[in-house]
Amino acid sequence: METPGEEGWSDTLWRALRPVVFLLLVGSCVWLLIDPPSFSGVPTLLLVLLGAVLLTLAMAWVATRMIGEEIPENEWRKIVDRSELLAQLPAPTGPPSAFDELVIAALDDLPQEFQEALEKVPVTVSREGYKYGAYGLYVGATVARDTYPDHIVIFEDTLTRDFGGSPVLLRAQVERTVRHELAHHLGWGEEGVRGLGLG
């Protein structure tokens, strides 16, 4: 079995050929629309039928490759184990704190497509930001390389220490921190995230 980060030669070849196959399929469809064949004889009709069959087979092959393979047993086991561990966590003992509400509001204010990207990513609040010298932390391998569970942590202690004097500033920085860690989950490096104005 391949380790995370390694690719088999067939995956590498498919990645290189995928745009070529796609362009050939689109190009042939456009060509047929622009210059449709004349059905003046049996040989031409057979040629068109053969082309249609080949095009259908090629599209079926591309669709099958794009769907991908089923999840390997060990990966499925990891998902099940993680779900069972999460289910064993104690339920919150009380209503969310004021800071929790700020994080919830920041998540609710995200555009729909970003909320969907975070659907399966736990976002938790911690009071250990002093250990990391950070307002937030993304743990994971990004959405593109899902090799182990993703997790976003928002640090209440450092955020309230630096912005707690102003509710408006605190809310703005919590929102900025949530978006910063989301950008990491989507694959942006630290420099790129800062370039987005989320630093």
Quick rundown:
With 199 residues, this protein is mostly helical. Helices cover 61% and strands 7% of the residues. Strands 1-3-2 form a three-stranded mixed β-sheet.
In words, what does this structure look like?
- With 199 residues, the chain is mostly helical.
- It folds into 2 domains: 9-67, no CATH class; 97-195, 2-Layer Sandwich (Zincin-like).
- Helix content is 61%, strand content 7%.
- The chain has 9 helices and 3 strands; from the N terminus they run H-H-H-H-H-E-H-E-E-H-H-H.
- It has helices spanning 9-34, 42-67, 73-88, 98-108, 112-117, 129-132, 156-163, 167-185, 190-195; strands spanning 123-126, 136-139, 151-155.
- The chain has a 3-stranded mixed beta sheet with strand order 1-3-2.
- Helix 1 (9-34) runs antiparallel to helix 2 (42-67).
- It is elongated.
- The two termini are 38 Å apart.
- Mean pLDDT is 76; it is low at 1-7.
